[in-house]
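Hey all, quick one. A colleague (J.T.) asked me to put the L-histidinol job into the tracker so the inputs and the structure tokens live in one place instead of scattered across chat threads. No bug as far as I know, just bookkeeping. Sequence used:
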Amino acid sequence: MVKKLTSTQFLEQFCTRKADSGFDPEVLQSVSAILKDVQLEGDQAVQKYTERFDGTTTDNLIVSEVEIQEAKNKVAPETLTALKEAAANICAFHEKQVTPSRIMAAEERKQLGQLVLPMERIGIYVPGGKAVYPSTILMNAIPARLAGVKEIIMVTPVKDNEAIAPVLVAAAEIAGVDKIYKIGGAQAIGALAYGTETITPVDKIVGPGNAFVAAAKMLVFGQVGIDMIAGPSEVAIIADNAADPAFIAADLLAQAEHDENARVILLTDSEVLIQLVEKELESQLEKLPRKAIASVAINGDSALVLTDSVAESFELSNAFAPEHLEIQTADPLSTLGKIKHAGSVFLGSYAPTALGDYYGGTNHVLPTNGTARFSSGLSVDDFIKKTTYTYYDKEALQQGRMAITQLTEEEQLTGHGDSINIRFK
Ligand SMILES: NC(=O)c1ccc[n+]([C@@H]2O[C@H](COP(=O)([O-])OP(=O)(O)OC[C@H]3O[C@@H](n4cnc5c(N)ncnc54)[C@H](O)[C@@H]3O)[C@@H](O)[C@H]2O)c1
Ligand SMILES: N[C@H](CO)Cc1c[nH]c[nH+]1
Ligand SMILES: [Zn+2]
């Protein structure tokens, strides 16, 4: 069953940095071969790998208008209502992130400012190997639309020539996706990055995926932007002895069912709570349809950690920097100041991670594997660029002339100085 660790063991096993990229060398090798092929052979290579890895053989990889209409008619009305409600909450939260272009300094003879410009075309990766993720479409496309992105292209794999899941088409329409391609894995990332005969290259690729997708995103970064390398799901729960063990076990299992490599952690100063959560995990796991995946995750890189105090639980959580952090202690809102690193925080017994995964309004594409120390979850900011501008008239430049030329001489870049001085001859 799940490992029980002391604080020291947790720090050693979960919070030390590794020297390598974290990617299996075989995965990196095969992904870089796939990317090279896609760059050279375009659609033909995309089709070859789609057939090999997904068993899908179509030579028409775009989802057609007819398929879209057929799919939409198959979605249950209550699913459509749920998608629209979730979309409204996500929209309401993210529209507050929109920042306008602004003038930062305006004097009579000069003006400095910052233009906020949307990206033209973005690609959204929607995972499709082990589950379908309509919620991920909303989380990626809604902030892009709010940022003003002109074209949103979505890719998602389908298995064995199956039709695309209707719920994905419905979510794509609600979120404002323009085109959908039935491709996944590294070949889809390559197609979005380099373009093919039928797919126009994008400026940035966002969205989560498995190790092949993540490695491909890492390798194409530089030619295109990427949001982050979002790995398998994680949750850390800080709880005291008053927390409900059934809630905690359910929240741990919810993230464990995503992936065998998911990491789920309880940090508590209560030995009794650990015992109760352990029992709950055993009984709840039995009833979980995705028991096979969740049980590998729970028994793998996951842990129940006994700490000295709630304060120490926060220290360990900050060292781990989890994707999701749940706080199930007395007066959870008052603990916000103790958080240094976490992708997204869920406060109290009635704000489980699943609330944010689907509905609350915050984004569920979040930094994993300790990267919350230096990065943030997906937001409108991921889809804009900030372009600064400067206006000076002759008199304003004359005022700065001496200082500029002094600095150009220090750097021995007198051509720079000349480009100032020539204006005053
Ligand atoms: N952080 C987030 O916001 C978030 C949200 C949803 C899902 N996730 C994570 O995304 C991941 C989804 O993974 P998935 O596998 O279900 O779907 P996926 O779409 O990421 O991967 C499936 C693709 O992998 C490729 N592939 C499979 N085996 C291969 C091989 N041997 N060689 C080369 N390519 C191969 C195939 O092309 C296939 O289309 C999970 O880890 C899940 O936890 C994260
Ligand atoms: N928990 C995932 C991010 O780690 C997001 C998700 C999508 N659907 C359900 N959950
Ligand atoms: Zn989830």
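Adding what we noticed when we looked at it: The chain has three domains: 3-17+232-373, 42-226, 393-424. The two ends are 81 Å apart (CA to CA).
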